[in-house]
Design brief:
By secondary structure, this protein is mostly beta strands. It is 9% helix and 48% strand. A hairpin with a 6-residue loop joins strand 4 and strand 5 (58-64).
């Protein structure tokens, strides 16, 4: 699934992404670390993996979207 980085706190390695419908979804340090990233800037296009119900997904991976 694709999303756009919305917020990122380098101290906690957590933040939020915006789904294409505008829904903000938080991610934690474990999801950020799973993607192998070192930094994330608001506005960057990312690929995410989620689990759980569609109305309250939990992000398990955040990585850069590549074409």
């Amino acid at each position: 699934m694709q999303a756009t980085a919305y917020t990122y706190d380098p101290a906690t390695r957590s933040g939020q992404v915006l789904l294409d419908d505008g829904t903000p979804v938080p991610f934690d340090a474990a999801a950020f670390d799973a993607g192998g990233l070192r930094l994330l800037r608001p506005g960057q296009r990312v690929r995410i993996e989620t689990e759980g119900p569609a109305d309250t997904p939990r992000v398990t991976l955040v990585t850069l979207h590549t074409f």
